[in-house]
Amino acid sequence: METPAKSPDGSEKSPQCRELVTSDTGSTLCTSSRSESVWTSASRSRWDIYRKPVIVVAVGAAVFLVGVVITSLSCFLTNNKAYKMSGPAFLSLGLMLLVCGLVWIPIIRKKLKQRQKSQFLQSLKSFFFNR
């Protein structure tokens, strides 16, 4: 007597299912997608939401301050041209990162409000049409 084939998780398969090739492509695509947070309804903490822009703002402020220090050193040291060239570069890079991070925060807030409105409208829609 022939025993049915068992899958790796221990469940038995029918003879028709033996010929089918199992694929985990769907599950790996879903878990590796960038928009995974759209499909999950778990709420995230404020640190999880604002972590990246806060880090960009902090790094931008630090680089900007380094640029200020290097530029001020170039005023006092007249012999070194490296300070005169690298000071403005650090200033501009730090200012760019600082502004990008500060602009990123309102964009995230707007997206969160839109997502809350969308979830509210979806719940209203399901309430009225699923009766």
From TrEMBL:
The gene is Pirt. It comes from the Eukaryota. It is a multi-pass membrane protein. InterPro entries: PIRT. The chain crosses the membrane at residues 54-77, 89-108. Signal peptide: none annotated. It holds the Pfam family PIRT. It comes from Ploceus nigricollis. This is PIRT protein. Keywords: Membrane, Transmembrane, Transmembrane helix. Residues 1-31 are annotated as: Disordered. PANTHER family: PHOSPHOINOSITIDE-INTERACTING PROTEIN, PHOSPHOINOSITIDE-INTERACTING PROTEIN FAMILY MEMBER. The keyword Lipoprotein does not apply. One of its GO terms (cellular component) is plasma membrane. It is found in: Membrane. Residues 22-31 have a biased composition (Polar residues). GO terms for molecular function: phosphatidylinositol bisphosphate binding; transmembrane transporter binding.
